[in-house]
Amino acid sequence: MSSGQVDLKDVQRQLSKVVDPEIGVPIVEMNLVDKLDINDGNVDIQYHATTPYCPPVFALKISQDIKSNVLQVKGVKDVKVTVTGHYLADAVNKQVNKSQPSPAASQPMQ
Question: How confident is the model at residue 99, as a pLDDT?
Fold first, then answer.
């Protein structure tokens, strides 16, 4: 495998570290991950909330943990996380996937 490829097992290992903060069980043990696609260093993960009315702070925490954990995998350039089946899914998805300005973009031009 070339160094530019993302190892699926490494991504799965990082996902297994994401724990539902309310229940205390890893999301993979609860079979919450519905989709995992890797394309040229870009990872697309879709999962569903345990209930439609899971507290939004927990849905956001899970989404953020997924993103930060998977970004640690060698070769990963970007991670898009989508929660489904939650009453505030659109807001959570927008928040977790908002683009972060690059450090160079935030520096004033000289």
Answer: 74
